Amino acid sequence: DGWICPSVPCPGPAPTESNPIVIEIPISSPVQIMESTDCPNPCPWNYSGLQTKPGTNCKKFVNCVDGEVTDHFACYADNFFSDQSKGCLNIRDMGDGWICPSVPCPTPQLNLPQPVENAPPTLQPTPLLPNMRSTNWPTPRPTRRPLSPAQKPTSASAPTYQYLRTYLLEKEDAINSVVLQSNGSPSTTYTFSDFMNSMDMAVFQFPADKAFFVGEGTGARFQRKLTGVEYGLVNIGLFLSNAMEEGIKIDSCDEWNTDFMYDNLREKYPLSNACGQYGRSYEDEECHQMEPFQCPLNTTLELTAVVGNTYMNVPPFTCRARIFDGANEIFPGYYDVADDVVIKSPYANTLGRTDVEGCCYWGRGVLLTRGRCTIGKLDKYVGKGATDRGIYLYDDVDFCTNPEAICNHHRSNELRWLLGMLEWSDRVQSYANLNSDWRYMDELKRFVDGGMVDEEFINGVINIFTRKCHDESCDDQWYLDEENNVFKESRIDNFRKIIFEIFNLPLTYNPTKSPSETPYPTLYPSSNPVVFQLSTKQPIIQFSLQPNTQPLAQPYKPTVTYSPTTITEATDTEETPQTSSGRSCCGLLFPCALSILILLLWTQE
Predict the structure, then answer these.
(1) What is the pLDDT at residue 97?
(2) What pLDDT was estimated at residue 451?
């Protein structure tokens, strides 16, 4: 009662080099920290990992790769960087009397050549030594300003992502041969290196609530228990499995015109499908009112897609304002497959549109992202609209006025992936259905912890991506047909291949009496070893002492019969007999040896 929004002052300008950076630490006594400006590179020689930044009282640290700084991080509130744990720890966990150790600035180690007496003059300039950069060469990419604290990743994300990134690099060949394939041939539009580079930006450059999820914690992949890294691998597997049925499948950055009309025994493709296909109206799909970042509708744009439907030779999508010849409008028309010709007539698509005015938001990128919302967010987060946040990744592009730059920009190879990752983090990772209390992140962890066998979760994720709802409870979902749009079985099969054949994620469920068929065969041994134990039942030895009526060619010996023991597989439930012939032979060795030993002892007596 009586709550009033507190006044929030506008932050002042960034401090200059002449003013020391003061960081207030809410502990028993505030500490003023003067960040040293005399150490441009705190990374030791050829060192890779996290390193404390000198002069910051263990409040700031950097990520080093081969002795070069790649990212800057900070510990907030009463947390400090611990060199032992390689992360931010609370002051209470540092121990009594803890003091931040003094961290000197590393001295550059230059292996300068020793002068040689009477040496001939060099014919070429001496090459730059390691960690030396020419001041005359331009930087390969525009320099970006430091991120504001709100956009910096948490301290735990760096080691987690570093492990996951290393693991993915080991799977490059498998991803190329299974995922990045278009109709049996390697994709030329989507490559593994571009995927990895784009994921770096999606993890660290997107706002914290839109960062591409790569897992939690730093547990090793090959531990028997499930780890937070596996959460990230499953999220990546779901993303790639859907991408395989979108842009990767057609090996195109632009959406194709595929929603045809069957008219007079002819397939006709309305060129007004640029406005939307299969019942969707792309220009009308806006962002949520809490994030109104959609591109403003621009009816004057004139754009043409890079490629069209190469299967059916349908022209690429185009958008333009309406054109009139006097009082008559010149319509875009439709493409007639039989005659291979474009007929410029007022031919409507499924939405009833006969024009392409303002219809510049067809699908683009690896997920064929459609609509004004995600493209507007791409511009807000990494495009020209992000410069007010100090992000200068693509500051030369206004994606709202030129959305086709996603496919024809000189860095389009990254943008194709980046747009798809943004849509995934925005629509799938952030999905929460309040009516059924179904949240993607919670269900993802429950799926992994449960052994990755819950197909209901996989179906729900596919429904979120293709229909906007994990089930049939949403009112504003897209009603798309399975034959032309969803391809659910293909997406499920893609996901199984990725997590089982490429990522080698195990199925960790206990076998039952009658084990059911696993959803997909595992190609690697189970993490739980199978232990064979001999049954506790002892062999039954029976002596037949009846007189033998047949003539004895050899001295009399009693007839010995036995009941062979069985071999059981040790499980968590109960012992079940094994009927494998190989295992039965192993089981016969013990009773046979015991019977022969008893027989020999009896004959000697």
Answers:
(1) 81
(2) 86
Partners of residue 266 on adjacent β-strands: 263
Give the residue carrying structure tokens 């039954």: 540
Is the pLDDT reported for residue 534 higher than 60? no
pLDDT of 356 over the 90 cut: yes
Beta bridge partners of 569: 532, 576
Distance between CA 106 and CA 103 in Å, rounded? 9
Nearest CA to 431 among 446, 417, 444, 441?
A: 441
Query: Where would I find the H helices in 69-186?
Result: 157-170, 172-178
Pairwise pLDDT comparison (571 vs 463), residue with the higher score: 463
Closest CA relative to residue 485, chosen from 328, 276, 217, 335: 276
* Contact (Cβ atoms closer than 8 angstroms) between residue 33 and residue 59: yes
Q: How far is CA 512 from CA 324, 506, 547, 574, in A?
A: 73, 17, 51, 9
The DSSP 8-state label assigned to residue 385 in this structure reads G
Q: Dump the DSSP string for 227-289.
A: -HHHHHHHHHHHHHHHHTTTHHHHT-SBPP----EEETTEEEEEGGGGG-STT--GGG-PPPT
Biggest CA pair distance of the chain: 125
Residue 445 tokens read as 């962890």
Contact 57, 74 (CB under 8 A): no
Which of the two residues, 14 and 162, has the higher pLDDT score? 162
Q: The dihedral of CA 231, 232, 233, 236: what is its sign? A: positive
The letter for the amino acid at 533 is Q
**CA distance linking residue 69 with residue 199, whole number of Å:** 19
Cα 60 to chain centroid, rounded: 28
**C-alpha neighbours within 13 Å on the C-beta side of residue 346:** 6
Collapsed DSSP state (helix, strand, coil) of residue 517: coil
Tokens 């990725």, residue? 498
Taking alpha carbons only, the member of 235, 243, 187, 191 closest to residue 215 is: 235
Q: Answer whether 394's CB lies under 8 Å from 151's CB.
A: no
* CB neighbour list of residue 551: distance below 8 Å, 6 or more residues apart: none
Q: Kindly report the number of other CB atoms within 10 A of residue 311's CB atom.
A: 10
One-letter amino acid identity for 557?
Answer: K
Mention every residue, 6+ apart, whose C-beta is less than 8 A from residue 345. 331, 333, 334
Q: Which residue has the tokens 């189970």?
A: 526
Q: What single string gives the DSSP state of each residue in 34-96?
A: ---SS-S--PPTT--EEEEPTTSTTSEEEEEETTEEEEEEE--TTEEEETTTTEEEEGGGS-T
Say what the alpha-carbon torsion angle 512, 516, 519, 522 is, to the nearest 10 degrees. Answer: 60
The 3-state DSSP composition of the chain as helix, strand, coil percent (nearest 5) reads 30, 15, 60
Say how far apart CA 157 and CA 225 lie, in whole Å: 20
